[in-house]
Amino acid sequence: MATATPTSVILPTQGWSDASEEIAAQLEPADELLVVCDDTAPAVVDRIDDYDDSVRLVIADDPEGCSGKANAIAAGMEAAEHDRLVWTDDDFHHPPDWLARLRADYDRHGPTSELPVFVGQDPLAAALEPLYALSGTVAVFLADIPWAGSLVFERADLDDEAAFLEALRQTISDDGLLMEHVDFTTVKRTRHVETGGSIRETLETQVRFTQIVYRHDPTGTATQAAFGAGLAAGCLLFPLPALALVTLLVAGVYATFGIRRWTFFAAYPVAIAAIPLLVYGLARRSFVWGGRRYRWHDKFDVTVEPE
């Protein structure tokens, strides 16, 4: 059997989690898991003591001019010992074959990303699941957009790693920036990610998602606006046929991507609400993410404030 390529798994987190346990159990002898926190987390230190040097704590410090996530990824990449890198998040289940499948994906496709399926944890987030399925799952798959929650690439895939890390520490979206530097293959394999938790959290997430697309793909935002406006107009002008067609379309998307949720029934009202939500996301001057408020003035101009 061929020896697995040594891999550094970078996990930004605020503490030890089920994901930490799941990933640590999948490491090959030469691999490492970097648990990246803003500062020293005693709970993480205590748990890392249960492992050998394959699991390490990396202190990223507070971000200045970028998101906490981007800052953590940059710190993790600088601390990583290996050329093959896996980025992941702690908000979804990592089954026992998760890391092995990413390794095989890279050997087959090169840089590879899995797909998120966002599952709402409050009434508004649940109602918006059809929108998440279309923009966060289908569009990501069709356009081969990387999702930082689960992806693999190698340092050599970056033209200039130092410049990439410098840019990462000046922006919000880690995967949005990576998309501009590395060509990915997005495989049709989904991970269910909880989102929301309260109406306010869902609205803040909507602003963040909207502005990420706007900053990194303004043409995509314009296309989304045009399509959304046409769809909303059709729903209002021909309500009964549109209700049936839109619901069936989203039900088909759910079936195609293995999403077993009743929320496809919300597709019709969400289609009407999509444009107001887009306008709201673009009009907001700031948003809250992970306990910090971000003002995203330009792609590489970010102000970070306490929430």
TrEMBL record:
This entry's Gene Ontology molecular function terms read: glycosyltransferase activity
Membrane among the record's keywords?
Answer: yes
Q: Keyword Ribonucleoprotein on this protein?
A: no
The UniProt transmembrane annotation reads 225-256, 262-283
Topological type in the membrane: Multi-pass membrane protein
Subcellular location per the Swiss-Prot or TrEMBL entry = Membrane
UniProt keyword list: Glycosyltransferase, Membrane, Transferase, Transmembrane, Transmembrane helix
GO-annotated cellular components: membrane
Biological pathway: Sphingolipid metabolism; Lipid metabolism; sphingolipid metabolism
What protein name applies here?
Glycosyl transferase family 21
